[in-house]
Amino acid sequence: METIRVENLSVAYRGKVALQQIDLELSAGKLTGIVGPNGAGKSTLMKGILQLIKTQSGKIFYGEQPLNDHRKKIAYVEQRQDIDLSFPIDVFGVVLFGTYPHLKMFQRPGKKEKSFAAVCLEKVGLSDFADRQISELSGGQLQRVFIARALAQQAEWILLDEPFAGIDATSEKIIIELLKELRDEGKSIVIVHHDLHKVTDYFDEVILLNKGLIASGPVAQTYTTKNMEKTYGSEITQMLRMGGAGFAT
Fold first, then answer.
1. What is the pLDDT of residue 238?
2. Domains and CATH numbers, the chain
3. Residue 83: how many CB atoms within 10 A of its CB?
4. How many CA atoms lie within 13 A of 171 on its CB side?
5. What is the largest CA-CA distance in the chain?
6. Torsion, CA 125, CA 119, CA 102, CA 144, rounded to 10
7. Which tens digits make up the pLDDT trace of 30-80?
8. Is 191:160 a contact under the CB 8 Å cutoff?
9. Where does residue 61 rank: exposed (0-12), middle (13-18), buried (19+ CB within 10 A)?
10. CA-to-CA dists, residue 10 to 6, 22, 45, 95, 214, angstroms
11. Are 145 and 172 in contact (CB under 8 A)?
């Protein structure tokens, strides 16, 4: 199982620095959170890793090879606000779309691909929704459909941008348990996340970001008062302590 390595990644928008000289290695087989204040560059980092945006500098490696050579091994679940929910496609069609990277040019999914898509949909507990239009789904159901699409892609890595934004607590619990199960089965999962109270419960490793890399590594060593103050400022740690966030010392 290969790691993803980021070397000297910098991104600017309209002359303003969004990310500056990020050097980072994402551990395989882990559930990793990308955490930082609004405007810290969390989504930009994810898009930069996937080379979905123009970068000023930087190289991205999958193991020792360029990531672009292994792009189909990585699935990306964008923010809900970036998804065109008016597009006329049903749930099964979305999941089936995940099989396309493994088909030859102009080849259409056959019985084998359709059967596999059905298995992936069952895995996320939405078999009964196969014929439902995606516009009819709740936010939590939609996230699970896109996780099923990632499974149909046979992706080794699943990168999710704010998957818990705007969904209810029950749906969030279902999704995080599903992602933990996938991690235990050998998938590598990276999540852009904003709820600091959940960091210790959800993640094995955490990346603390504020336009530059503050710290990264196992939660127990990285999610500390000192590092959080560097990321957010001193006031945030007092607020989080009052809210019951568990920092390492």
1. 64
2. 4-243 (3.40.50.300)
3. 14
4. 16
5. 57
6. 0
7. 999 999 998 899 999 999 999 999 999 999 999 999 999 998 899 999 887
8. yes
9. middle
10. 10, 7, 9, 33, 15
11. no
